[in-house]
Every structure is written in C-alpha cells, then in structure tokens.
Amino acid sequence: MNPALAERETAGAAGVMENVYLPKAAVLDRVVDEIHEVKTFYWHFEDAAEQAAFRRFRPGQFAQVSLFGVGEFPTSLPPSPTEEETFFTVRQVGSCTAALHGLKAGDKFAVRGPYGNGFPMEEYRGKNLVFVAGGIGLIPLRSAIVYAMAKRGEYGRIQIFHGAKTPSELMYVPNLREWERTPGVECHLTVDRASRDRAGGEEWTGNVGVVGSLFKKPGVTVPVENTIAFVCGPPIMFRFVIKDLLGMGFEERNIVSTLERYMKCGVGKCGHCCIGVAYVCVDGPVFTYEQIKNLGEDI
Ligand SMILES: Cc1cc2nc3c(=O)[nH]c(=O)nc-3n(C[C@H](O)[C@H](O)[C@H](O)COP(=O)(O)OP(=O)(O)OC[C@H]3O[C@@H](n4cnc5c(N)ncnc54)[C@H](O)[C@@H]3O)c2cc1C
Ligand code: FES
C-alpha cells in the first residue's frame, strides 16, 4: 500500500475511518494547450489541508479525477513534488477526458489520491538516469525528471531522449528548452517527420528519426553501468527502445516503465486493473521491465 494511503487508513483507525473512495473538491486555475487534443490543467483543492496532504505525492504516482455527472478516470501526476503547482496533462479520448477539456478556470471537479507505487527515486540515488519518452509518454516521466534535476547532486548523469511524430507534437516545449540549456543535463530531441504542421512553428533543424536513433548520434554516449533507464511511450516505440537498451547491455531490472490499465477503485479493492498476480493501481503503475515480462504483459 502506498504510504499516503496507509497514513490515512492508520489515522482513520484512531478515529473515524476515512472513505478512500471519496473524491475531494478541486478548482481549476488555468488550462494550457500542449499538443493536439492534449492540455495541461492547473488546479488546487478547495481545502488547504487536502492540498497539503496531496502534495506528498511521489514521482510516478497517479490520481483519480471525477467529473460530476460523467465519471472518474486515472491520470498521472506530471509535476514534481519539488514544484509548487499541481497539474495534470490529459489527452481527450472519451467522455471523462472530454468533460475535463470542457472546463474553464474557476470550474469545479474532484480528485482522490495520490495512488500507486511511484518511482523509487531514493533507491536510485548515486545512479545515472536515462529518460526515454515517446510522445505523451513524457507525461508520467516529467515528474521524475524535474525531481532528479531539483536534487541534482544526488544523481549521476541525467539524459533525456524525447521523440514525437512531428515538431508540433513534442511535449512540454518550454521545459524541453530549459532542460537543453541546463548544465549537467543532456536533452536530445527527435521527430519522425520534420514537417512544419503548426502555423508559425519554427523550422525543425534537429534530428529526424525514431527516438532510438538518438542513442547513435555522434557525441552521444549512454552509460549502462550503474544506470536506470525510464521508458514510456506507445507500444511500438517501447518495443524498439527496449531492444536497443538490452542490446547496449542494460539489465531488465534496470529498465522501468509505467503500465496503464482500466481502473475503478484505484486502491487495490475491485480487481479491474489486475494483470496476473499484480494490481496495477497498488503494485504499479511503475514496474521494471523484468516484472513486466514476468507478468506476461505483451506491450
Ligand atoms: C495509471 C494511469 C495513468 C494515466 N495517465 C494519463 C495521463 O497522464 N494523461 C492522459 O491523457 N491519460 C492518462 N491515462 C489514460 C486515461 O486514464 C484514459 O485515457 C481515460 O481513462 C479515458 O477516459 P474517458 O472517459 O475519456 O474515455 P473512455 O470513454 O473510457 O474511452 C475512450 C477510448 O479510450 C480507450 N481507453 C480508455 N481508458 C484507457 C486506458 N486506461 N488504456 C487504454 N485505453 C483506454 C477506450 O478503449 C476507448 O477507446 C492514464 C491511465 C492510467 C491507468
Ligand atoms: S483499480 Fe481496483 S484493484 Fe486496481
């Protein structure tokens, strides 16, 4: 069980048991367009105590978002706990995500969490961190990237490899620009097609090719010893990147990713998110590639 949840249940045992299914009221502060059909929603809990409790989330955890009269869905937490603002980045795919996309500043919704195991960033102290993200796979990795950069002295080399179909589909562009300029951080970008498909977009002069092509770029060396590789992205990208990393000599237990499953309760009670013996909502969503393979998960 994740520590925040355990703490709430323990606190409840001393007095009135808290209902873990109860979403808490939240207010939307502002919305920022990221890429086509993907927006970032900045928000806060109405209750300051809830906000403070929630802000103890860890990189890689998720939350359940409720839209009144529509439903509830799980979403990653892209901010690092070292940042002040709380936000989600969500692609519109169906009824709940469309309802969230339809909200404007000042509108209310509800949130419960944080849930899940998160990345064990303490265990990774002293190691090199290699982040490989395809498209919106950067959403669940952003928190760990910003966290590691905020605690720069605790980690070895930090490398970020991000690929998108076109330049206008690169995620978190202001962050990418900042990471490219940050001393001690290597940020490499690529696109499948250099087409300038957003009016007024800058001409793309960077790498063209799949994200794995960045590993072979002149001047790029990926450390394998004492390194953790974080990989998130669409299944096809995941398969190719895993092949590249294993080919370089990475051990399966040193490659981590996040899994997505249909969820209902989010707290290990309903079984909706079950893969083999694992509940993605409590045992994950972060798993090593070794665990993913042992679960028989075909990504
Ligand atoms: C731990 C976790 C973290 C997530 N983080 C994010 C995030 O940061 N940003 C984001 O945009 N989305 C994220 N998702 C996916 C998000 O939860 C779904 O897109 C959402 O539930 C869709 O709800 P809906 O009501 O809008 O769509 P629905 O009406 O439920 O479905 C619309 C379409 O999307 C498909 N779909 C719905 N949920 C999933 C799913 N979990 N996996 C695969 N296909 C699905 C359906 O099959 C259908 O085709 C995450 C999911 C999990 C489990
Ligand atoms: S979502 Fe209910 S057990 Fe995981």
Salient structural properties:
15 strands; globular; binds flavin-adenine dinucleotide; Rossmann fold; 8 helices; alpha/beta; 7-stranded mixed β-sheet; 29% strand; 24% helix; Dihydroorotate dehydrogenase B (pyrk subunit), domain 3
Q: Please, could you describe this protein's structure?
A:
A hairpin with a 2-residue loop joins β1 and β2. This protein has 3 domains: 113 residues, Translation factors (Elongation Factor Tu (Ef-tu), domain 3, Beta Barrel); 123 residues, 3-Layer(aba) Sandwich (Rossmann fold); 41 residues, Dihydroorotate dehydrogenase B (pyrk subunit), domain 3 (Ribbon), CATH 2.10.240. It is globular, with a radius of gyration of 19 Å. It is α/β, with parallel strands linked by helices and 299 residues long. It has 8 helices and 15 strands. The strands form 3 sheets. Strands 10-9-8-7-11-12-15 form a 7-stranded mixed β-sheet, with helices on both faces. The longest helix has 14 residues. The site of FE2/S2 (inorganic) cluster has 12 residues, from loops.
Briefly, what is this?
The chain has 299 residues and is α/β, with parallel strands linked by helices. It contains 8 helices and 15 strands.
Chain-averaged pLDDT: 92
Largest sheet: 7 strands, mixed
| Percent of sequence in beta strands | 25-35%
Query: Major sheet: order of its strands?
Result: 10-9-8-7-11-12-15
Continuous helix count = 8
Bound small molecules, by name, code or SMILES, are: flavin-adenine dinucleotide, FE2/S2 (inorganic) cluster
Q: Approximately how much helix is present in the residues?
A: 10-25%
Radius of gyration: 19 Å
What would you say the CATH architecture of the largest domain is?
Answer: 3-Layer(aba) Sandwich
Number of domains: 3
Give me the CATH superfamily of the largest domain: Nucleotide-binding domain of ferredoxin-NADP reductase (FNR) module
Class based on secondary structure composition and strand pairing: alpha/beta
Low-confidence stretches: 10-14
The helix/strand series, from N terminus to C terminus, equals HEEHEEEHEEHEHEEEHEEEHEH
Roughly how many Å apart are the termini? 25 Å
CATH class of the largest domain: Alpha Beta
- The count of strands amounts to 15
CATH topology of the largest domain: Rossmann fold
The shape, in one word, is globular
